[in-house]
Structure formats: structure tokens, C-alpha cells
Amino acid sequence: MGVKVLRRRELTFWEELYIPQIFSGLRITSAHFFRNLFLHAAHSVGALTHRAASATFQYPEQPRPLARRFRSRHRLTVREEGTPRCVGCMLCETVCPARCITIVAGEHPDPNVEKYPVRFDIDLGICVYCGYCVEVCPEDAIRMDTGILDVAAYSRDEMKLDIHELMNPALRKPVVECDLKFPHECRHSGGEIKGSWE
Q1: Which pTM was predicted?
Q2: Which residues bind [4Fe-4S] cluster 1 (predicted)?
Q3: 86 marked among binding-site residues
Q4: Any binding-site annotation on 178?
């Protein structure tokens, strides 16, 4: 087996100085700068408002529009009576490549429903937002369409969502304890956590 040696071609004097490339980069940067400067000045007097002044979105004041199929924070869908549609089949837990879903199934009091999740936790700190759990669910019980993007927390424990937060995506803090089996409307009131079937 022979080895073929490839030799680089010698750079010319101007290529070694990189001056043409520097001026080319400055030309592109200056064109963007003066275009945005002109459009921002025009926007300040109310002209050319139909054209965006720059590609930068001033988040959170100006949120970027999300695509319809964008995968954001998870949620569990509920039935008409407020119970989760999840039947505890463990498919989402099995297919999850990050192993961030934990389900504990139990017998449902309704004979028409075989099982229900006693516990359903998702650890967003290790979730890769692949969407496999949504695709594999036979009951359409889990979705990633909340549009909630801010999942930052001060500790790793705050990144874990329990069944209460998954059924109520608007909750910001984890609901530690509710005395109901399906507290789909857990909310903070008067300093304590309340839940209701209403």
C-alpha cells in the first residue's frame, strides 16, 4: 500500500497578507450595519415599518413566532372528566433515549379504563426534546405543543415535572402535594396548594 503525499500550493504575496479577505468581510459587515442603521432610523419616524430592521428579535418583549410543529415543553392531555388520557402503557418511558420519563401505573377505579398513571414524571434537565414519546403514544396523551420555552431553573430538582404540572402547563412551580387523585386544576391560593375536580 503506497502513500501519496499531497503538497499544498504556495500562497501568493497578497494571499499571505489576507488583505482582500479582510476588505471583503468589512464590506459585508458594513453593508449590514448601514442597512440596519437606515431602517432603524426610518422606523423611528414611522416609515418603512413593513420591513424588519434587523434579524434580531428583542426577546422577551418581541417573541419569535414558533413553527406549528415546534417541540416545546410537554403536557398531558385530559379526558372530559379531568383525568389524564394516559393509560400507563409505558411506551413513552420505554422509547425515551434519555430515560427522562418515569411512570408508575395503577388500577383505575373506572372499569372501562384499565390503568392510569399514579406517577408521571419528566426530567427536563436530561430531556433531548426528540418527540419520540409523542409519536409512540397510542392514546395521544402526551404532547409537546405548549409553546413554553423558558424551562430554566435554579436547581436540578426544579427541572422535574410531575403529573400535576404536566396536566397544567401554566403552573410555574412544582405542585408538591395535593390530596386528590387527579388534581387537574391545582393552583396556589392563600399560600397553600389547592386542587379541585371542577
Answers
A1: 0.61
A2: 86, 89, 92, 137
A3: yes
A4: no
Q: What is the pLDDT confidence band of residue 103, given thresholds at 50, 70 and 90? A: very high
Has 100 been labeled as part of a binding site?
Answer: no
Q: Say whether 186 counts as a known binding-site residue.
A: no
Q: Which CATH class is domain 75-167?
A: alpha beta
Spatial neighbors of 20 by CB under 8 A, at least 6 apart, are 14
Residue 96 annotated as lining a ligand binding site: yes
Is pLDDT at 47 greater than 90 in this prediction? no
CB proximity list for 73: less than 8 A, separation 6 or greater: 124, 144, 146, 148, 149, 151, 161, 169
Q: Where are the domains of the chain?
A: 13-45, 75-167
Of 178 and 22, the one with more pLDDT: 22
